[in-house]
């Protein structure tokens, strides 16, 4: 390979040593998840957007896994936006609606159902025979999660199973555009109809998590199961020994050693949940614990999930991913961290999830 620039990788921060997964007891997992949740609340999140939506979903799942009451932040956040009126302006504005669907199932309050229907109508106006575009001319992995997970939650809340089928259709359309037949990994996105083969970690987390959400709602969707199994097996094969994937998960020399915790958290959650669905359970569960053992040292005492990369637009070359800042606490890092600890807690305690499973 010529013309590479490994300078960012060569100056990457030293890796933190992983913990043995045996120390991640039920109590440790629950305490860490609670600290991540409190830190997310302290961020002062206000926008109805994708990072906030991932936090809301993570808080719901963490409360379910730990047997805790739902954090008041979730209800207050949703109620404030519902009262003001929600006007989505991008597909990333859809995912907070998953919390609306959950609240409708729990309370029966019609305001939440009405908001779900409003968001569904907005999404339907932008849905055609092909994959939903993130931007005109661009298909991104993010969309399979932001729209797909919302569809799954609305399907359950509104008793509309056809929405699960639509989420599965979108997931497979995205897999067709972004999936690499040689490696089984997924690219971040396409630009002007051309897939850019950079195997971004968070893209793989988004697609993996959307896949398990869909299969948890309808385990009979064999095409999703098969493609997801290939992806997760590939991720397990590329996982570094310390457990935390680089920002690009294929070990590209320009990003090697630049770890990315939010991707690792999302992938870990998907590994645990896929194993629970019977997909290579021993191998995927082992990879999940290795990922969480590597992730755990990056969670500070105040619950900050550190080394989470900033919001990342599609990069046209691998080097672009080596210079994305990762020195700030990000809502998606907190939310994906919550999803990881919740999935691990369910796995460790064998406790089912009443509302979400």
From TrEMBL:
Please give one Gene Ontology molecular function term for this protein.
unsaturated rhamnogalacturonyl hydrolase activity
Q: Which residues form a coiled coil?
A: none
Q: Which residues cross the membrane?
A: none
InterPro entries recorded for this chain? 6-hairpin_glycosidase_sf, 6hp_glycosidase-like_sf, Glyco_hydro_88, PolySaccharide_Degr_Enz
A Pfam family that the UniProt record links to this protein: Glyco_hydro_88
Q: Which GO terms describe its biological process?
A: carbohydrate metabolic process
On whether Transmembrane is a keyword of this UniProt record, the answer is no
So what EC number does this one have? 3.2.1.172
What is the recorded name of this protein? Unsaturated rhamnogalacturonyl hydrolase
Give the species.
Answer: Kutzneria kofuensis
Please spell out the taxonomic lineage of the organism that makes this protein.
Bacteria, Bacillati, Actinomycetota, Actinomycetes, Pseudonocardiales
């Amino acid at each position: 390979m010529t013309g590479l620039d490994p300078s960012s990788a060569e100056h990457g921060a030293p890796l933190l040593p992983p913990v043995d997964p045996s120390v991640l007891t039920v109590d440790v997992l629950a305490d860490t998840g609670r600290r991540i949740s409190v830190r997310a609340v302290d961020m002062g999140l206000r926008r109805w957007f994708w990072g906030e939506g991932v936090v809301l979903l993570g808080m719901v799942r963490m409360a379910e896994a730990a047997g805790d009451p739902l954090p008041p932040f979730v209800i207050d956040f949703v109620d404030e936006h519902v009262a003001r009126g929600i006007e989505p302006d991008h597909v990333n504005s859809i995912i907070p609606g998953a919390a609306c669907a959950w609240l409708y199932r729990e309370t029966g309050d019609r305001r939440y159902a009405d908001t779900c229907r409003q968001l569904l109508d907005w999404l339907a106006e932008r849905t055609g025979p092909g994959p939903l575009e993130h931007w005109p001319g661009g298909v991104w992995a993010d969309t399979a999660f932001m729209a797909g997970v919302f569809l799954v939650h609305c399907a359950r809340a509104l008793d509309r199973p056809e929405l699960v089928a639509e989420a599965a259709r979108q997931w497979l359309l995205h897999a067709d555009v972004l999936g690499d037949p040689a490696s089984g990994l997924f690219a971040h996105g396409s630009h002007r109809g051309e897939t850019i083969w950079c195997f971004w970690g968070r893209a793989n987390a988004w697609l993996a998590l959307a896949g398990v959400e869909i299969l948890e709602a309808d385990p009979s969707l064999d095409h999703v199961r098969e493609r997801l199994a290939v992806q997760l097996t590939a991720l397990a094969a590329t996982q570094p020994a310390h457990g935390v994937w680089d920002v690009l998960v294929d070990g590209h020399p320009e990003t090697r050693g630049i770890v990315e915790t939010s991707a690792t958290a999302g992938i870990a959650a998907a590994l645990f949940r896929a194993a629970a669905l019977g997909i290579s359970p021993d191998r995927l569960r082992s990879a999940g614990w290795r990922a969480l053992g590597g992730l755990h040292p990056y969670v500070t005492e105040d619950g900050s999930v550190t080394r989470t990369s900033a919001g990342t637009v599609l990069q046209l070359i691998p080097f672009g991913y080596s210079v994305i800042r990762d020195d700030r606490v990000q809502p998606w890092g907190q939310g994906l961290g919550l999803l990881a600890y919740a999935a691990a807690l369910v796995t460790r305690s064998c406790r089912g999830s009443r509302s979400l499973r």
